[in-house]
Amino acid sequence: MNPHRAYKPVNEFDDTPVKLPSQLPPKSDGKTPHVMIVGAGIGGLFLAILLDKAGISYEIYERAPVVKPLGSILTLSVNVMPALEQVGLYEELKAISLPQGGAQLLYEDLELAIELPAGNTNNVFGYDMLLFCRPKLYELLLSKVPAEKIHYSKKVLSALQNKEGVMIRCADGTTYHGDILCGADGAHSAIRNNLFRTLKEKGVLPSSDAKEMSKGFTCLVGTTSPLDPEKYPLVEKEIGIFSQIIGRGTRYTWSELNIAEKRVCWVVVNQFASLEESERMKFRNSEWAPEINDQFISQVRDFKVPGCGTIGNLIDLTPSDGISRVYLEEKLFDTWNYGRTVLIGDAAHKLLPSAGQGAVCAVEDSIILANCLYDLESLSQPHIEAALDDYKKQRYGPVKTQFDQSKLNAMILNGQTLLERCFRYIAINWVPESMQMKNFAKAAEYRPQVSFLPLTPKKGTAPVLPQKPSKRYEKEQELKRKTLKEQALAEQSPPAATI
């Protein structure tokens, strides 16, 4: 290993040295990057796991003293199952999950609108869609990342980059250096805000990126404590049954889903009547004061659910610290990378949760970014920029498809405007089940795998898009095969004659 590289943090605008208390840059072999990941969420943790397997050094910087994920429903589709198998997480995930079973759409009096029975998707796609509570996945990922790699209470205030590297400065006065900065810090990303501010000053920020995220809904979410199966037979089922209820004459929709450990996840969604109301509620409820939550709860307590009586009953069965109120925001940003900085997950694209693709997209981002970094040719600025450009080129199309599907699903499941109610009626009554399955199969074709690990063999009968190979990994495997062949020949050859 070479000694610490001669790296002096410099402001890229005026080349003035930054006079801050600064740690030494990490040691480098001149080829393998050191990645600074800001944000210890699902995307950041999964990226860390992949970088560790790739032999790429990294550190994670998390603004919170302790990360507390929302106690909400989380879904991982077949798209990421092969990669989870590659890294040894698939069986552990199954142990904390239930497979997706049937789904039903009902009206507020529990009149059935449409029912989608559980099909044997495992034979077709090779995997089940898995349902679980978000904290369970977070705990699983966190257990795979060395504790010393995560630095908590590190609120990033600014980031500077130049041809030598990148530096972040935190609120506690500490600074850190690396070759690549990854913003995995969520929808209100400090790294994205810092990057966009820089690009705006340079006059190169797309006008679309300067606009705020759309906020059409707010919701209350929670997961109950383990329930008594005699009182709530729903929790004994070995598959997750999703029930979506549409309010009539109201802007509310709500849902119920049984998950592992005899728990039930529930969600109540309120659609804003206008953009003005959205902005007004944002100002009033920036910290979701308890009295505001109590008002929300009082309005929804009597909403009926098929498995557990009412939403109020589910709320009473949920620990108070397991209830959260959040905005449902959406935006697909145009800028995902610049220089040595790159964004993944909600920092690059915030999807509505209606299609259950937010966590899926974050995992897929991590896979493709890790693949690109593994094939990085050198630590030069042009090679790093080329790798990050390739990451966005591979990911933008699939994310756009998932973004549009999430918006469409939100119209069907949560929309309460006249247009959305008409659209829901058409989707329920006129779209054949065969077309729905065809669309699902099309979405399941994209299953990116980790290119520097042995690939998971194709499962199921449904088609899968080809995997982009890693040139570096192919060369390494060819060298291994050649070495093993030479060793085998040497072992088979008779010993040289002696005189």
TrEMBL record:
Q: Which GO terms describe its molecular function?
A: FAD binding; monooxygenase activity
Give the InterPro entries listed for this entry. Answer: FAD-bd, FAD/NAD-bd_sf, FAD_mOase_fung
Pfam families with a match to the protein in the record: FAD_binding_3 (PF01494)
Q: In this protein, which residues make up the domain named FAD-binding?
A: 34-199, 318-395
Basic and acidic residues composition bias: residue spans: 471-485
Region annotation (Disordered) maps to 1-29, 457-499
Q: Does the keyword Transport apply?
A: no
Q: What keywords would UniProt list here?
A: FAD, Flavoprotein, Oxidoreductase
Q: Which residues form a coiled coil?
A: none
Query: Flavoprotein: present as a keyword of the record?
Result: yes
The record's family statement is: Belongs to the paxM FAD-dependent monooxygenase family.
What protein name applies here? Answer: FAD-binding domain-containing protein
The root-end lineage is:
Eukaryota, Fungi, Fungi incertae sedis, Mucoromycota, Mortierellomycotina
